[in-house]
Automatic annotation (TrEMBL):
Residues 27-65 are annotated as: Disordered. Belongs to the PPR family. P subfamily. This is GST C-terminal domain-containing protein. The lineage of its organism: Eukaryota, Viridiplantae, Streptophyta, Embryophyta, Tracheophyta. It comes from Flemingia macrophylla. Pfam families: GST_C, PPR, PPR_2, PPR_long. Residues 890-1027 form the GST C-terminal domain.
Length: 1032
């Protein structure tokens, strides 16, 4: 943290401390290149085991053992020149070993100096404290300091003050020097031998450092700084404050390092006020703050989220004449990025550029996260391209940046970072980078890529660690790729990793969820066998798995095992057990669990309450179910499942009004949030014949962007059948839906809207597929004809029929059923006669639905005589009494004549004749370009005759309908697009033969509504040419 440098006592040597160490302890030859051989041990040394004397022992590796062997060789030099170690020597050795991570070996030097009769002075004591502090052994450091203050040395298991010490220092034959009291490593033994050869007798410990009360106090500022830092890291704030207070009382000079340490200790524990007060005290004591002082405050403000204070602290650094350093900028960038202050961050980076200061790599992930959070991924990429100016980004930082992208689902950006160009300098990718990239693939649901990357990492020299396996196993288990997860779980253990409970739990939960309960049990037993204790989640998964499959006995078995293992059942586990009782219809068992759940902290959860309502409903206990539901509703906790369950119960027992009331309340409460809840309400409305409400419900569902599922469409097809849509039409819609034809779903919605009178929605829905460029089949055209006909737009309906013929989609039975409806509403009796004639001569498939449609159409046209004839034919053909009810006038309450405004029969007499000729002209035109010889010439002659008849009917009128387009205009005008093809392939000049007809066609095309509906003549020509080419 804010550790001060190692205190070294002043030396009389002319060399600096490091030079003294080198000249005193190291031999002239380099020990690292040619380590001297260790001479045989003398008889007074520690004895070796008998069998080891005959073996050649290999030298310990590393630089320190080589150094120690060199030090041992220099032992005779000490003996001859009488150079003895000092406190300074021991202090430096403790520091060197501690810095190398050899904690126990470093502390053994303190034992050695006690054996030599030395008592650690303040510098040595301070070095020991620092080594223990850095190793986070705070209590041990505290004990050592307190013992040192009392004039003794205590280091727990090292037994520095044991009786062997007294014996060894007073005995004349001190060969063992107390060494027999403990086992010493080979390295320590060699280094110990250095000072046991020769030397002076140990001097008695001095009492000069003890105070009048028998305690010695530190006198150096550096010692107090280390103590404050020690207690601060240990979280012992009062002890840190006491040391600081004692330092002030003792008159020990307080330096900037002291204040910095105290400020950090106070601030890091949330005492910002005290940290700020210390800054004021610095000024009183005449201690000038340094850059580190302001960095500490800035970091504390940043951690507290006080951006203004952090920025002000940065300014104070400048005002104090100090230069911000890397830590300053890193802290300030951190707080600005957390607040998403993009402009301020960019301004600060520009300022750093002006000062030739690079952005610290540890600031990069925060800046990238800020840009990504603001949706400006390009700026994040630009920053990464420019960084670093020199060197290579470390693996940890690279992984942190990748993780930012991964958390936002930006797997491609994370992949760019992972595979991006960089100067690897022979360095392989770190396992952390692989782990983050695997996580990124998992979040993007690219599971194959995640597994592939895992398999490839070994080939590139990076071995997966425990985190790699845990991430993959849990990821694959969540998406039910359980076999791959299981294989990785086995491989993980073969690699020597012990999977944690969470990883086992994921696999067990996946097997249980998929109903593979035997495999779930096998993994559970494996988990217990390797010594991983299952938790509540594991037992809950097993219990829930057996509960879902109605295996109450097995669910109870694992419930009892869980309780015997000392785990208490939580709400989740009890709810799973409750579900098991409910699925088995065990009311008494369910009630017992239900009552037990009431006594738990938090009370009953919603799932448990819904389970009980469902159980009551399944058992037909209406009163109990109603009471449980009403209690839940009064508490405001009833959800869609609660409402759906009670609604279903009411409907099943015949309480339709109550069911409808619940459905309406559910809708008004905004509880319809998914397909399941919508479907349940839809069924309730449909069973009560409220089809209009069904239409509204479907429209609301689509508006909420909820995609109706198979269950929804099953209900819709049932509604259409019950509401009177011809059976053939419903079967056609259902077949199109099952086959996944374009706009099959939209066509079903359109039919429902038209059926219930929601004509605006029906027309909008029909336009989406009629005006599309997708090739449609007859079912889509049929629905559009029905939609426009139901909305009263007969012209558009007939226009769609003609368009259907133009694109060579053959009409089917449903087409004729809907077309009959159009003719009836338009009063076009001749059209009805023509279709009926085709039906009689079996040119159209015989169908009761078509017979009924013709009867209805004749009645709308006030031709009850013709309707009666069709009725008799229908009865004769099907020879069934069930059709006798068609004679009843009330059976066909389609609507009054005024509703459709059909007028008299005479008004449509001419129009009907012309319409018949319009149909005839289509057949003649087809003969002209498909036939040859005399047949073609005859068709051409008849074609011109029909056109001349049209000219006679048109007379001086603008359109056949007068001043506005009529049915005949709509029926005829599509043929005009074929004239170019007829003239070329039939050598027929229509304009010269019938100029009046061509003028009429040109007037029609000038209307935007007509021109938009007609195909281009050139495209028609190309189409016919292609057909002729293929047909030869």
């Amino acid at each position: 943290m804010l550790a001060s440098s190692i205190p070294v006592k002043p030396s009389s040597s002319p060399f600096p401390p490091s030079t003294v160490l080198t000249k005193t302890l190291l031999p002239k030859a380099s020990p690292l290149l040619n380590p001297p051989r260790v001479p045989p041990l003398r008889s007074h040394t520690l004895p070796l085991p008998a069998d080891t004397k005959k073996k050649k022992r290999s030298s310990p590796g590393g630089a320190l053992p080589s150094l120690l062997r060199s030090l041992h060789s220099a032992g005779d030099l000490h003996s001859r020149n009488a150079v003895l170690p000092t406190n300074n020597t021991y202090s430096m050795l403790v520091h060197v070993y501690g810095t190398a991570g050899l904690l126990q070996e470093s502390l053994l030097w303190i034992r050695h100096m006690r054996l030599r009769g030395f008592f650690p002075d303040e510098v040595t004591m301070c070095t020991v404290l620092k080594v223990l502090k850095d190793a986070r052994q705070f209590d041990r450091a505290h004990s050592f300091y307190k013992a040192w203050s009392r004039g003794i040395v205590h280091l727990d298991d090292l037994e520095l003050e044991d009786p062997a010490f007294s014996a060894s220092t007073s005995s004349s034959g001190a060969n063992n020097n107390g060494s027999t009291s403990m086992s010493i490593s080979f390295k320590q033994f060699l280094s110990t031998e250095l000072f046991k050869i020769g030397g002076r007798p140990p001097a008695p410990a001095s009492d000069s450092m003890l105070s009048s009360n028998g305690l010695q106090k530190p006198k150096l500022s550096s010692t107090y700084n280390v103590l404050i830092d020690l207690y601060g890291k240990a979280g012992r704030l009062s002890d840190a404050a006491d040391v600081f207070s004692e330092m002030l009382k003792a008159g020990v000079p307080v330096d900037v390092c002291t204040f910095n340490t105290m400020m950090f200790v106070c601030g890091s524990h949330g005492n910002l006020v005290e940290a700020e007060a210390l800054l004021g005290m610095m000024e009183e004591k005449g201690v000038s703050p340094d850059t580190k002082t302001f960095n500490i405050l800035l970091s504390l403000y940043a951690d507290a989220g006080d951006m203004d204070a952090a920025v002000a602290c940065y300014r104070r650094t400048r005002e104090a004449g100090l230069s911000p350093d890397e830590v300053t900028y890193r802290a300030l960038l951190g707080v600005l990025c957390k607040k998403n202050m993009v402009r301020h961050v960019e301004d600060l980076i520009d300022e750093m550029k002006d000062l030739f200061v690079d952005v610290d790599e540890h600031s990069v992930p925060g800046i990238v996260e800020m840009y990504v959070g603001e949706g400006d991924v390009d700026k994040a990429k630009d920053l990464l391209r420019k960084f670093p100016r020199s060197g290579v980004m470390s693996s940890n930082v690279r992984a942190a940046v990748m993780d930012v992208f991964a958390e936002r689902g930006l797997w491609a950006e994370a992949e760019d970072m992972f595979y991006g160009e960089r100067d690897l300098a022979g360095r392989k990718r770190d396992v952390l980078e692989y782990n983050v990239m695997i996580k990124a693939y998992g979040r993007a649901k690219l599971y194959d890529e995640a597994v592939s990357l895992f398999k490839g990492m070994k080939k590139h020299g990076t071995w997966p660690n425990e985190s790699t396996y845990n991430t993959l196993v849990q990821m694959l288990s969540v998406v039910d790729l359980v076999e791959q997860a299981r294989d990785l779980l086995v491989e993980m253990q073969e690699m020597g990793f012990k999977p944690p409970c969470q990883t086992f739990s994921a696999v067990i939960g996946c097997y249980a969820r998929l109903g593979q309960l035997a495999e779930a049990v096998n993994v559970f037993q494996e988990m217990v066998r390797v010594g991983v204790k299952p938790n509540e989640v594991v037992y809950g998964s097993l219990i829930n798995g057996f509960a879902e499959h109605g295996s109450l006995e097995e669910a109870l078995q694992y419930f009892h095992i869980m309780e015997e293992s000392g785990l208490s059942a939580n709400l989740v586990v009890l709810t799973s057990l409750l579900k098991s009782y409910c699925k088995g219809g065990n009311l008494e068992g369910a009630k017992a669990i239900y009552e037990r759940m009431k006594n738990l902290e938090g009370g009953l959860d919603l799932v448990a309450c819904n389970c009980m309502i469902g159980l009551f409903a399944d058992l037909g206990l209406v009163s109990e179910a109603k009471l449980a539901f009403e209690n839940l509703r009064e508490m405001g906790r009833a959800d869609a499942i609660s409402y759906s369950t009670i609604m279903y119960l009411y409907r099943e027992v015949g309480l339709i009004d109550e069911a409808i009331q619940i459905a309406e309340e559910m809708n008004l409460s905004g509880l319809l949030r998914d397909c399941v809840s919508f479907n349940k309400v839809l069924v309730c409305y449909a069973s009560n014949g409220q089809f209009y409400e069904c239409g509204e419900l479907i429209h609301e569902m689509i508006s909420k962007k909820l995609l109706p599922n198979d269950r929804t469409f099953k209900v819709l097809f049932t509604i259409l059948k019950k509401a009177g849509i011809p059976m053939e039409a419903v079967e056609q819609l259902e077949s199109s839906y099952q086959e996944g034809k374009p706009y099959a779903r939209q066509a079903t919605f359109t039919t429902l809207y038209s059926l219930v009178g929601m004509h605006t929605l029906a027309i909008e829905s029909a336009q989406t597929f009629i005006e599309s460029k997708v090739d449609l089949d007859s079912s889509a055209y049929n629905v559009a004809i029905y939609a426009y006909s139901s909305a009263g737009d007969i012209n558009k309906a007939l226009n769609i029929y003609m368009k259907m013929r133009d694109v060579h989609v053959e009409p089917d039975l449903v087409t004729y059923i809907y077309l009959v409806g159009c003719y009836g509403k338009a009063g076009m009796v001749e059209g009805l006669k023509r279709i009926y004639s085709q039906l009689e001569y079996e040119e159209i498939e015989s169908s009761e639905s078509l017979f009924k449609a013709i009867i209805d159409a004749y009645k709308i046209c006030n031709r009850k005589d013709l309707a009666e004839l069709v009725i008799q034919e229908m009865k004769f053909r099907y020879n069934s009494v069930k059709h006798s009810d068609v004679e009843s006038e009330t059976e066909y309450e389609i609507g009054s004549e005024d509703e459709y405004d059909v007028g008299s029969e005479g008004e449509y007499e001419v129009g009907s004749e012309v319409y018949t000729n319009a149909v005839k002209i289509y057949d003649l035109g087809r003969k002209i370009w498909t036939s040859k010889g005399e047949e073609r010439e005859g068709a051409k002659k008849e074609f011109i005759e029909v056109l001349k008849l049209f000219e006679e009917q048109l007379g001086d009128k603008v359109y056949f309908g007068g001043d506005n387009l009529g049915f005949v205009d709509i029926a005829l005008v599509p043929f005009s697009t074929w004239f170019k093809a007829l003239e070329i392939f039939g050598t027929l000049n229509v304009e010269s033969e019938c100029p009046k007809f061509i003028s009429w066609a040109n007037r029609c095309v000038q209307k935007e509504s007509v021109s938009k509906s007609l195909p281009d003549q050139n495209k028609v020509f190309e189409f016919i040419a292609d057909v002729k080419k293929k047909s030869g």
